Amino acid sequence: MKKRKFFLTKAIFDIYRNSLAYISSRVAQFGIGRGQWYFINHLLFGRDGISQEQLSKELFVDSAHTARAVKKLEDGGFVFRKPDLRDARKKNVYVTEKAIAIKDDYHKLYQDLNKILVDGFTPEELKLVRSFFYRMRKNIVSYMGNSERDFPR
Amino acid sequence: MKKRKFFLTKAIFDIYRNSLAYISSRVAQFGIGRGQWYFINHLLFGRDGISQEQLSKELFVDSAHTARAVKKLEDGGFVFRKPDLRDARKKNVYVTEKAIAIKDDYHKLYQDLNKILVDGFTPEELKLVRSFFYRMRKNIVSYMGNSERDFPR
DNA sequence: ATAAATTAGTTGACTAATCAACTATATTTT
DNA sequence: AAAATATAGTTGATTAGTCAACTAATTTAT
User: On chain C, which bases lie within 7 A of the protein's CB atoms?
Assistant: First the structure.
């Protein structure tokens, strides 16, 4: 079996797919689908009330997808939408009590996944991991013309 | 703007999405779709002739998707399939001359993306990046019950 | 040797995600 | 001020990807 060159993209791809499988199978218990978890995550953990457009930008997904995903979350009672007071085109998305009620369980999911990913890493290595990921993200996001300044990490 | 906790999953997700956008828009010129590039990549760079089942395992995707993606690549002239000599259920997938003809250009795409991702990293940091990614991938893949021993990185 | 269970790939049904086109609203240009 | 252009969200069409059910081939159990 021939030794292959290490492709960063393959590793990213593999980590992503496995992480996605992990999360998706677990958010189902909350009645949240594979295509919505990251929206509610984003809203629950600090970005409540932002517009759909901003959600699209911050999650690097298409507005069509955002509109549909947010609608599903709204139908499921996890969010509600209100037009922006200064711009009637904009719809701001807010979490409901139902969403807040699962916040801790939800958060635990992420922590558990995080622990799996960094199992065996020293605290010093963890610092490096964070730094490297932040920098790589910044590199690709900037390159693709997406502004990362618009939102915090 | 409130400072948020750094979630590794969000960084992975962001890097993945932006990288996917980068690759997908560029492989289109070869007549390869968003859902197929990583299959042909895998075959071109060292795994020519493996079965569909193995492709699914190594790429962490569902056999239904593999069957369809491989069929598209076959229809596009990039691969051909042959039944395995020892197990009539298995179909092995091979690259064609057409695929080999684009190998270098294809490879350049990956290198360019890699350069973008690791821009500003020192050689020492690069070594760490590789090690960290390898370990994290191993962590999640093992946790999910997928064997990484079956294929090299 | 035969029956039962498992496996590899395919097809169906569904959700997810992108690209395109559109409408209403807002901003910029004339 | 009116016209032209850009923007935010929605809908349509399409591709991608998963879960489920199925068939044919293989392996395991009886």
Answer: 7-13, 15-21, 24-27
